[in-house]
From TrEMBL:
<dbReference type="InterPro" id="IPR036388">
    <property type="entry name" value="WH-like_DNA-bd_sf"/>
</dbReference>
<protein>
    <recommendedName>
        <fullName>MarR family transcriptional regulator</fullName>
    </recommendedName>
</protein>
<keyword id="KW-0614">Plasmid</keyword>
Length: 216
């Protein structure tokens, strides 16, 4: 199959499920369905975005709206953790120019694929890593990504359940509407999001979008 050369920067998100062998059949079906839902959402945001699921516990996304890459990464992580305590994932994502893209994501090639894949294999204690061919961008966000990883790792499934609708909306979602949708009090939503550090996470996503958007 012929490859399409992309000279513009792309982002590649590579992830796998944590302790996937410990999941029973029902749990596996739930997380697989959630991954597909998130991938569909990412494709709705940009038609050229592509995805794959490998061996059932590994997933990958090719992102053309690169400024939104971190947003999609957080969406993946939050959506999977929202399913409950047994669920989490590790994600490595990278941004780079020049790629040979094919219909099958697993057959595509380029620096972003290499950086993302190597980063995932090299992970030890962390569950989120970022790499960029533009070292200024990578260095700028190195410490912030470590903070974000810690914040998401500490977030409860309930807190993730509340953050997910906020990540899936293009427009701000009033806490009152979120509370009504989840069947909880407004104060519960406000308290949970504050405990999850949502305000800082939201600010980091905006800063990443602005910084990367200015360099692509």
């Amino acid at each position: 199959m012929m490859a399409t050369e992309s000279k513009a920067p792309i982002a590649v998100i590579s992830g796998d499920l944590v302790d996937s062998t410990a999941l029973n059949r029902d749990e596996y079906e739930r997380v697989l369905a959630e991954i597909k839902t998130i991938q569909a959402h990412i494709s709705q945001a940009h038609r050229a975005n592509q995805h794959s699921i490998i061996r059932g516990d590994e997933f990958q996304s090719v992102i053309h709206d690169v400024a939104n890459a971190l947003h999609y990464v957080v969406m993946y992580r939050v959506a999977i953790k929202a399913l409950g305590k047994p669920f989490d994932c590790r994600i490595s994502f990278a941004i780079a120019e020049q790629a040979d893209l094919r219909e099958a994501v697993s057959e595509s090639m380029g620096q972003a694929f290499v950086l993302s894949g190597r980063g995932l294999k090299a992970m030890k204690n962390q569950r989120l890593a970022f790499f960029c061919a533009n070292t200024d961008i990578e260095d700028r966000f190195a410490l912030l990504i470590r903070y974000l990883d810690r914040q998401l790792s500490d977030a409860t499934s309930r807190q993730c359940e509340m953050m997910l609708p906020l990540l899936q909306r293009d427009q701000p979602l009033p806490y009152g509407e979120l509370a009504a949708a989840l069947g909880v009090a407004n104060a519960t939503v406000s308290k949970s999001l504050k405990a999850a550090g949502w305000g800082l996470i939201e600010a980091l996503l905006a800063e990443f979008q602005q910084a990367v958007g200015a360099h692509v």
